Amino acid sequence: MLLDQKEVLALLRCPRSGAELDKLDDQNAKVASSTGDIHYEVVNGYPILLCSERCKGLGWQLSSDASAVPRNTYSGAMKVMKRLVSPPSGATKKNVDTLISTLFEVRRKPRVLIVGGGTIGEGMDRFYEDVNIELVSFDVYASPNVQFVADAHCIPLGDNSFDAVIIQAVLEHVMDPGMVVSEIHRVLKPNGLVYAETPFLQHVHEGPYDFMRFTESGHRLLFRQFSLVKSGVCSGAGTQLLWALEGFFSGLFRSHWAGKAIKLSLFWVMLFDRLIPEKYNVDAANGVFFLGAKSECSIGNAEIVAHYKGAQ
């Protein structure tokens, strides 16, 4: 469950200096670095902790009160259709089960950070609903699902402060994924867990804010500062084919609606993910996942090469 805003304020740090923040009087609606030389606005209750000096991200030039891309909400028949074409991943559910059970083995009330939590990700509802999870969430825009606005390239939180960090469908949208992963490593407690889901073979989404893709091995390389708990495919070749067909028909008919109609009529293609062996899904995955624990040393290049799980 989302941590109370007052408790979150005590956790926040200046994204430029790392110093603690002090709340000024309500009339000013600002927070300040404890050094007294840097101030940040508080807009509608959300501290806006964006900086351009230290980070390589886009947060400093985005609106803090609205997403730079449309965020649709669905209800009724549209919600049913959305669920048909984007059903919850079985792999995500199993991974969330593993993550939560592991956390509760270590802590009675684990503290979890969601990076890019402006919208609740597929399968992540449990973190928002469980009263025994102290959840902190942020994004580059304000929403009811976050407590502050920040850029993942310079996370305004202290070192060694979280039991787990979740970053789902975010790393493809950042300028420097390595820097973001280093920040995740920094804010995790020793042996803290990270869970990431990132696209491999997907067409561009969110337009100009889509930059990166990762193979399963490339994802492992990105998280080389973490020991492996498990990794693999969260959506396979069948899902990837459905995405490709959507893109093909959108282009052929010069209409995104044409692509969505094809995706809706052929949603059953995703079921082939379950019939295709994992090693073939690895080479043609729509998306990959990584679950790992913070380590004090990085794995070597030879281990990265040996990690390959595909069919080639």
TrEMBL record:
Protein's organism: Grimontia celer
Record keywords, A-Z: Methyltransferase, Transferase, Ubiquinone
Organism classification: Bacteria, Pseudomonadati, Pseudomonadota, Gammaproteobacteria, Vibrionales
Protein name, UniProt field: Ubiquinone biosynthesis O-methyltransferase
Any one Gene Ontology BP term: methylation
CDD domains, sorted: AdoMet_MTases
Ranges where the Methyltransferase type domain occurs: 146-195
EC code(s) of this entry: 2.1.1.222
Gene name of this polypeptide: ubiG_5
InterPro entries according to UniProt: Methyltransf_11, SAM-dependent_MTases_sf, Thiol_S-MT
Stored Gene3D superfamilies: Vaccinia Virus protein VP39 (3.40.50.150)
SUPFAM superfamilies in alphabetical order: S-adenosyl-L-methionine-dependent methyltransferases (SSF53335)
One annotated GO molecular function: 2-polyprenyl-6-hydroxyphenol methylase activity
